[in-house]
Amino acid sequence: MSESSNAQDEFDIIRQYKKALVKSDSLLANGTIATINSKELLAITKKLDHKHPEGYILQAMSYFKEGNFNESDFLYNVAKLRLADWNKNNVGAFYNFSGDQKMQLEEGLFLYMSADIDNYKRVLELALNYYKDNDYLYISKNKKYHKAAIPEEYSAMLKEFDENRETVKQGLFETREDMRKKVEEYYLMLNLKE
Hints:
The protein is mainly α. Helices cover 75% and strands 0% of the residues. The protein contains eight helices and no strands. α1 (2-30) packs parallel to α5 (99-113), α1 packs across α8 (165-193) and α3 packs antiparallel against α4. The longest helix has 29 residues, at 2-30. The chain starts with a helix and ends with a helix.
């Protein structure tokens, strides 16, 4: 039973990756890859600002499964920044995102976001700006609350997007195409088993 369940879980993940590829290719072709429901997203994010960092991940995963990849990527980046706040301010036990959801979000979102460097950069900047402009209300009531600095990796990434645009674009394309081949092969293999 568990072997069958595991195979189904794997197939669901691969289907989601395939969905990210197909959707990004389609939206890129018709010029709407950058569409984002910012009004709904900001309302949900404001509510999540009152919850444990895991809440952002759960909502990012929900958006991911619905095929709302820009919204999912935004929340995933905000989640990582809120996690830095959580751990810096010693609110509770040290917490870290790990496991299947983290892997699915990182890999699946990369497949979508890497299709268009401008969209990738825009969503990342939206998340960073949101973080800069909004305290983490779940823990900001604590008098010792100090917002964690945005990790240097974000600034370095944005700088690379601007200064080495074509090199980064080519690197994203090559990595994405390599991942696409693996997803397609795995999808075919799992599909034949059903």
